[in-house]
Amino acid sequence: MSTARLRAESLRLGYGETLVVDGLDLDVVGGTVTAVIGPNGCGKSTLLRAMGRLLTPRGGHVLLDGKRIDKTPTREVAKVLGVLPQTPQAPEGLTVADLVARGRHPHQSWYRQWSSDDEQAVAEALAMTGMSEFAERTLDQLSGGQRQRAWISMALAQGTELLLLDEPTTYLDLAHQVDVLDLVHRLHSELGRTVVMVLHDLNLAARYADRLVALRDGRVVAQGEPGEVLTESLLREVFDLEAKVIADPVAGTPLVVPVGSRHRTS
Amino acid sequence: MIQGVTASTALTERRRRRVLGLVLLLLGVVAASLASIAIGSKSIPLDAVWHGLVAPGGSENDIIVRALRVPRTELALLVGAALGIAGSLIQGHTRNPLADPGLLGVSSGAAFAVVVGIFGFGLTSLYAYVWLAFLGAMVTTALVFLLGSAGRGGPTPLTLALAGAAVTALMQGLISALVVLDQQSLDAYRFWRVGAVAGRDSVIIGQVLPFLLLGAVLAFANAPGLNALSLGEDVARSIGQHVRRTRVLGIAAITLLTGGAVAACGPIAFVGLIVPHVARAITGPDYRWLLPYSALIGMVLMLVSDIIGRVIAWPGELQVGIVLAMIGAPVFIAIVRRRRLTRL
């Protein structure tokens, strides 16, 4: 049995009257990068929120290192697991340094305020994301890509071994998407972090993830290495998409080429 | 690593500026306090103020200083600080730059309780109003919190603000109904509701002081949590903050501070609305600095307004509540015009 750091057991998730996920099991193995893919509304973000204890399940459990996450004090969880929601909001006038410093929140208390550990964690997080030179800028003065890197710095400064990222590349142009994913790769390869992220771009997901989890209607349709998961039949099943899958000329990972009605021959 | 050091010196530099700002504001508070003791229908020279403070004898000046000016000044300091802090808290928790401490119905609840006391029990003493107003403030906040929590998803800034608005409207209606029935109630009520620091003695200060102190302690304990919450509830949870506990703590602090202030002075407008904007322009969105700045700026604003009220209508005076409304409206318009409203 491999070591599952984070595990979902027969999760039932929903908002209001609607049930989005019904009976889902998932293991996240330590030291891997997992990308969750699936069509809009399939429950990707919902699943990620539940795995990060931002959403209380209707049924089932999330286990962090074998312990129920909802029974563990939230501050203890926050020392091991960081979650970055989609397009987070910051108050106006907040500087990058201040934002990243707030990532140290779980390590502080009324008797233990700012320490040299905190100082160092913030400096390292800023350096890792290349944001040191922007430390005194306010978030409103940054471009979209820089802002995203600032938020990732905050999650990094938190110093957690696990990171859950909800669409970290949304609203970024392709160059900045690659930038952010290169950063994710370094978190994994240099710092040994375990990363779970929701991604829309299948080709980038195939390139940067060790494992893909394909969701449809709140169920796991397939999971495994990108080469096993991203097949023409799976794309049809999960996305209702006619596509060719060829080898990525750069990475050798699957490359999805959609057909579309304009070029359909048969 | 060099870049890290640069960021760190910038932080230290900013910290020093913020501490310096606090010291300057503190000096401003001392100066305004002395002015508040010296200026009035009978002006008292500064050396006589000093004499009255440190070695009071039986002279007329000494008695005015000790019995009238000092309690009045103390009360203005307390209430200014309380409303400044409560304003920053309510704007932070609701992420609404137009929120004021009365948003959760505290002031209208206090006013309603006072009217019931006047109309139903013929009470006319300010001491009695203090307890009534405080009771009204507490009950109303509890009611607003219950209403705001009733829906699925528990209390959110939006449901709390809506519940506060509904309860405020109800209370205002009931107040109007009662005072319309009785001329005497109307007279007593309209003097109370203007908001004043005059005519309150040290007994009233003693009545509200414990609540204001407790409220201030809770407010400062709430600052780190509010910093986390200002990044959104999801991020706050993910960095280990208990969202519901933070909200309850904040509401408790707001209720104690606003309830104590309204109980002592009647409803005082604009301090809780304007002060946070001024403080934020200096400190930025860090509540550990924003709250002490708000307290000191609130003190200065209350004192200066009260002094203006004594000067412009000399030898009579204008209640601080009226002065604040007259200063507050244009100042607030200026703030709104100068910078677009801050996103919290």
Report on this model:
Chain A: Its main location: membrane. Chain A: It is found in: Cell membrane. Chain A: It is a peripheral membrane protein. The complex is a heterodimer of chains A (about 270) and B (about 350). Chain A is an alpha/beta fold and about 270 residues long. Chain A has one domain: P-loop containing nucleotide triphosphate hydrolases (Rossmann fold). Chain A has helices at about 45-50, 75-80, 95-100, 115-130, 145-155, 175-190, 200-210, 225-230, 230-240; strands spanning about 5-15, 20-30, 35, 60-65, 65-70, 80-85, 160-165, 195-200, 210-215, 220-225, 245, 255-260. Chain A has a 6-stranded mixed sheet with strand order 6-7-8-3-9-10, with helices on both faces. In chain A, strands 2-1-4-5 form a 4-stranded antiparallel sheet, with helices on one face. In chain A, β9 and β10 form a beta hairpin. In chain A, α4 runs antiparallel to α5. The longest helix of chain A is centred in the last third of the chain and has 16 residues, at about 175-190. The N and C termini of chain A lie far apart (about 45 Å). Chain B is mainly alpha-helical and about 350 residues long. Chain B contains 13 helices and no strands. In chain B, α3 packs across α12 (about 285-310). Classes of the chains: A alpha/beta (about 270), B mainly alpha (about 350). Chains A and B meet through α2, β6, α3 and α4 of A and α1, α8 and α9 of B.
